[in-house]
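Re: weekly structure request thread

Next one in the queue (526 aa):
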Amino acid sequence: MADTPNDTLGLTRPGPSNAPKINFAAKDIDVLEWSGDLLAVGVIEKDVERDEEGHFKNPLLHRLNEALGGLLGEASSEEEFSGKSAQSIVLRVSGLRFKRVGLFGLGQSASRAVAFVGLGEAIAAAAQASRAASLAVVLAFSEDLSDESKLDIASAIAVGIVNGIFDDNRYRSDPKMTLLESVNVLGLGSGPDMEKKLEYAEYVSSGIVFVKELVNSPANVLTPGELAEEVSKIAEKYNDVLSAKIFKEDRMIELKMGSYLGVTAAATANPAHFIHLCYKPPCGPVLTKLGLVGKGITFDSGGYNLKTGPNSSIETMKNDMGGAAAIFGAAKAIAQLKPPGVEIHFVVPACENMISATGMRPSDIVTASNGKTIEVNNTDAEGRLCLADALFYTCNLGVEKIIDLATLTGACIIALGPSVAGAFTQNEDLAKEVIDAAERSGEKIWRLPMEESYWESMKSGVADMINTGPGQGGAITGALFLKQFVADNVQWMHLDIAGPVWNARKRIATGFGVSTLVEWVLKNAS
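Done, posted below.
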């Protein structure tokens, strides 16, 4: 990362990336012929059923148990393993080509991508715990699957394994390297289509890892300028399809981005950077133009409406650029996939929301680039002020569809919990596209209403609008605010990702959003 005004704050600089370097390969070999450290078997509850003599009915488990002299059956009985979701059992074995065998439960049935991503994560945890350098994955029920579903399942498992194995240790004094080097997928087929699907998973995973590293980085390292520098590096690395423009304050003034400038122009020592990354296919005509807009607040103090108290979460506000990170992670994956026929604009108004004697005050009025005026009744609703100008800018690029991603409201977390993003759109076709993409990718998105009657609560007595409404329906009024800056001829969706961007238990980023965005882009490219 490049030098910043805060380069010496805390004397902290990140170490090298610990991004996994795993070779994924599909093989058509007998399970008992595979040689390596850990054989991981995914099972549903039906697979562990026994016959009257206590033998597994499932052919694969029956063969494994026979080869192990009944050890698998004994251990699963003793540990009451029934194949329920999130259950697992790992055994050290001898006399076979592999050192360990594990059963990993998927519940009563498994058909959704989210289940197989979770399976991959569980297998990765077992591989890490056993210090495995090589593992193989096989499903006890693979014979019941269609050829098309096998491709998608292999990809989802691979993404889950990278998700689960990645340990962001750049800020530790004694970092431990990831040991896992190779993963073989058994029993799901092989050939060019499978190789392509595993390569797809590799590219998506690289984007997710990039997101995690960005969001995990503290605000004394990842300033708006640093974020712009990281994006510039991605553009340079994939300069056959990516190009980047970085605007500073003088250009923001020319573009009349008063809403964005109100947040950042006079309140922080780290200046704002407006980032516009563009993907163009390496060959062929452009048939569709898409826009992805991300909230990029690298630290949110709340401003004069300071985040205070035990539930303010100020200590996690480095993650307020999770939307920006998600679209740039998607850009990294897309630059490697190189989909034809689609041009994509990735737009982020990056800045900090800090406190200063010259900063924005409650009751100030700012003027957005589309001419609308906003009375700021809460400086801690700054993300929407920045997104207002970013959305208007993106509409003027001639895009047909826009998705914005933002850690916008705590209200969305209250409504949907920590694992589900809220989707807001009035366009039925776009809603179906994105929700289908999320289903295929294994990410959780739920559509919420755009209740127009709530806009009355956002009217100002002196300006066109205020930036926050009453406490009720806060996620909805946030979406309605953003709608004021989107052109009528542009299909638009707002994704509030305040919950799923962050794993509160582990205190790390999740990489949420990349998989869905890549799936959506590819659907629009096809």
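DSSP finds 14 helices and 20 strands in the chain. Residues 192-216 form the longest helix (25 residues).
Next request, please.
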